[in-house]
Write a structure and sequence with these properties.
The protein has 510 residues and is mainly alpha-helical. Helices cover 70% and strands 1% of the residues. The chain crosses the membrane at residues 29-51, 84-103, 115-136, 142-159, 166-183, 215-237, 266-283, 303-323, 344-362, 382-403, 410-428, 440-459, 471-496.
Length: 510
């Protein structure tokens, strides 16, 4: 490892170049403001040519709306606040984070992750680390803070290389971010953007979409990626790292206290009771959250998934906090939730500029033009089907090296690629899942990922010579394997024509 980190080879130079290029990009908040300004300028230029196209969904021809005309300027000033408030993911993400934040701030999620890892047999510890990492995405950032150092400690205690334990956990948390057995804020956030983008082409079809549109696929992906990550760890990463000869002696406890166990017990009871009460609103015939004719897929339940997630996380988190003493009164509840919302301040600022870009892009009709001409271009070079899907995954994976935020990238890409893929006969559900595959897979090899520096700090406790290139060299096999095999799984799904989620489709027939 030490010699490896000292050599500056081709890969190291490439990664250094990526880091320098990415650092030159504006902050995502600034980037969206610049993109919104670019949309206004392009709309003004194209409107001079009087171009018109017929939307993919049919109907009357549309022209580019000039956002710098008198009418366009009135729209910009008059809709600024509405564009911010109406940014699709804003309300649902903040609402969902109230519940997740309560479970995270009281320590419930942290102790559940520790409990899972400590309860499985030693022979399954690698699989358990990757699996727990994938599952931790329901709690957003908690997995990054808890699992990599825990994985390193457990591997060290077992006489295995601690960096291998850290890497396995990091791969699950970050590269497997879009897989899970549960729906999370990611489904809510990306789903809202996908529905919004699909509505520019076919509002009726967009109205039939739900936030669980990828649920079946991400369930299967959870076990699939856990197996892939385990194989990469045991047959590629650990042999390459060799025997650990460091002298680090950690003082962290890997046990669970009696109080924490008591808290988990009562939190589990609270979860079951809450789930049962919610089931009464969904399962019985005529239940208020069922749709017409007793439908579940197209129902108030699916439309209110953010609220359901809020409740399912909030109640057990609150009960755990009360039992362990983390929450003593309503003031503590308010304070903890305030800290959660404070952590979302960057997302709120991002929503302001992203909301303008998304709204201006739709108002200008540039999305319709890009959908029509982009589809025609791809058809003219006979790029459709599986090659098109693979190209899209590679493009997104490359962009992810420079722009880490999944929501920021999808806010940019969804208005362009969702309509193009719909024009070529592929559903928004498929496009979103392809995006999620690519976005997750390369998280662990970009120094621009938010928690990359934290992972290096954890790793340096065991090997002081580890630098950016060293960590990326460890994580690169995971990234390549996840992207290749996960894309292959999606291709098999496409060929079999399986639904990606409740009521979802692979092909768009609008």
């Amino acid at each position: 490892m030490n010699n490896q980190s000292q050599r500056v080879g081709l890969l190291q130079r490439l990664l250094n170049s990526i880091e320098r290029t990415g650092n030159r990009l504006p902050h995502p908040v600034t980037l969206f403001a610049l993109l919104a300004a670019l949309v206004a300028i392009v709309s003004a230029v194209l409107s001079l040519f009087g171009l018109e196209v017929v939307p993919p969904g049919g109907g009357e021809a549309v022209a580019v709306n000039n956002l710098l005309s008198a009418e366009g300027i009135r729209y910009i000033f008059g809709s600024l606040v509405d564009n911010f408030i109406g940014f699709a993911p804003l309300g649902v993400v903040l609402a969902t984070m109230i519940g997740i934040g309560m479970a995270e701030r009281t320590g419930l999620i942290s102790v559940l992750l520790r409990g899972f890892i400590l309860s499985i047999p030693k022979s399954l510890i690698t699989f358990g680390l990757v699996f727990a990492g994938i599952m931790s995405s329901v709690a957003s950032d908690a997995g990054y803070v808890v699992l990599p150092p825990l994985g390193a400690m457990i591997f060290a205690a077992l006489g295995r290389h601690p960096i291998a334990g850290l890497a396995a956990a990091f791969a699950g948390v970050s590269a497997g971010f879009s897989a899970n057995l549960l729906l999370s804020a990611t489904d809510v956030m990306l789903g809202e953007l996908t529905i919004q983008a699909a509505a520019t082409i076919d509002p009726a079809y967009a109205g039939s979409l739900n936030l669980a549109m990828n649920y079946y696929f991400i369930i299967v992906s959870t076990f699939f990626l856990a197996i892939i990550g385990t194989l990469i760890s045991q047959f590629v990463v650990e042999p390459r790292l060799g025997r650990y000869e460091g002298d680090y002696q950690g003082e962290e406890s890997t046990t669970i206290t009696a109080l924490e166990k008591r808290g988990m017990k009562w939190a589990s009871i609270a979860f079951v009771v809450t789930l049962a009460l919610l089931a009464l609103l969904i399962v019985p015939p005529g239940a208020p959250l069922r749709g017409e004719g007793g439908a579940i897929v197209q129902s108030p339940f699916m439309s209110a998934l953010a609220v359901v997630l809020l409740i399912l996380f909030f109640v057990p988190g609150l009960v755990y906090g009360i039992v362990t003493g983390a929450v003593k009164n309503d003031t503590d509840v308010a304070n903890e939730l305030s800290k959660t919302m404070a952590g979302m301040s960057m997302f709120i600022m991002l929503a302001f500029t992203a909301g303008q870009f998304v709204a201006w892009f739709a108002e200008s009709n540039l999305g319709t033009f890009m959908a029509v001409y982009g589809a025609e271009l791809l058809q003219s070079i006979s790029l459709t089907g599986i090659p098109l899907l693979i190209l899209f995954v590679l493009i997104v994976g490359f962009i992810n090296l420079f722009i880490g935020s999944a929501s920021a990238k999808w806010a940019i890409l969804a208005p362009v690629f969702v309509p193009i893929m719909m024009q070529l006969g592929y559903s928004p559900e498929l496009t979103q899942m392809a995006y999620r595959v690519a976005d997750s897979s390369t998280n662990i090899i970009t120094p621009l990922m938010t928690y990359f520096a934290l992972i290096i700090a954890y790793a340096q406790q065991y090997d002081r010579d580890i630098r950016i290139g060293s960590l990326i060299a460890v994580m690169l096999p995971y990234s390549m394997a996840f992207m290749m095999f996960w894309t292959l799984l999606l291709i098999v799904w496409l060929l079999l024509g399986l639904p990606l989620g409740p009521g979802s489709a692979i092909h768009y027939g609008g």
